[in-house]
Specification:
- By secondary structure, this protein is of the alpha/beta class.
- About 5% of the residues have low confidence.
């Protein structure tokens, strides 16, 4: 009888040890998960701070007139071990979807479409943003969208983002993708300064943007932390020349996204410098 009791006791002990082992394993797993989560939160916070520092770096160079070496895409290293991919676009070199007239729109679209297609798309852009329901020659209003089987119609108000241009009736998505980088809703111009366009950025640098009287710039900084975690900050900066110097204001301050990596054209570039060294130059 005692032998049987000892057998039961042994089974209970072994079962208890197994349970303790499982609980200990779960505790270690949870602890490791929490440590990794905390590490990721810290990495993202560091990436966000670095991305915002990158915007400030660009702003300081714009306000001081040292723009020629940051007007093109730049990659640099930010401590402790974060890579910054900096893109600067002069909005004056883009077509403003809200201010450009039919001729400016058509001239720009002709770079991607035939003349007749460009004219039609220009008129449809005007119809998309104007507040009336009258159809321009070659344009499109609500009835045309419905006839094409599209659930939405023209916005009949200003574009809030250049991505809304994709909704224009008859616009090929592939063409829209090519057009997007040359469009804006941020500039204060109805015309385009061609030498500042995205397709002429090297020429813009040679043209000496540092001597312009001001400008509006879209700055996009992607900070990639160790382990591949990233953060994107986008800012629209406005530079004005005053009697006593230049002023800079931030018109928009947007979070681009977490873990949104820059495209291959940027990541393939060499890391040209340490960001702190760039700031000191």
């Amino acid at each position: 009888m005692r032998a049987v009791q000892r057998g039961y006791a042994l089974i209970i002990v072994l079962w208890g040890l197994g349970l303790i082992t499982v609980l200990a394993g779960l505790f270690v797993l949870v602890a490791n998960t929490q440590v990794k989560t905390a590490s990721n939160i810290l990495a993202i916070a560091q990436a966000e701070a670095a991305a915002e520092a990158g915007v400030q770096l660009v702003a300081s160079r714009l306000i001081s007139g040292r723009l020629s070496d940051v007007n093109e895409d730049v990659s640099c290293r930010w401590p402790p071990d974060i890579l910054l991919f900096i893109e600067v676009e002069d909005e004056r070199g883009k077509v403003n979807l809200n201010l450009a007239g039919a001729s400016v729109l058509a001239d720009h679209l002709q770079e991607f479409l035939g003349d007749s297609e460009a004219d039609v798309l220009a008129q449809r852009t005007l119809d998309f943003r104007d507040i009336d329901g009258a159809v321009s020659p070659g344009g499109a209003e609500a009835g045309d969208y419905a006839q094409a089987g599209i659930a939405y119609g023209p916005k009949n108000s200003s574009f809030d983002a250049r991505e809304e241009f994709d909704q224009i009736l008859g616009l090929d998505p592939a063409v829209a993708q090519k057009l997007r980088s040359s469009l804006t809703v941020l500039s204060a111009r109805g015309d385009v300064i061609e030498r500042l366009s995205p397709n002429a950025r090297s020429g813009a640098v040679e043209g000496g943007l540092a001597h312009d009287r001001g400008g509006q710039f879209l700055v996009r900084v992607t900070a990639v932390a160790e382990g591949g975690l990233s953060f994107v900050r986008e800012a629209h900066l406005i530079i004005q020349t005053l009697a006593v110097g230049k002023s800079i204001s931030i018109n928009s301050w947007l979070k681009g996204g977490v873990n949104a990596l820059p495209d291959s054209s940027m990541t393939s570039q060499p890391i040209v410098d340490d960001c702190a060294t760039m700031q000191a130059r």
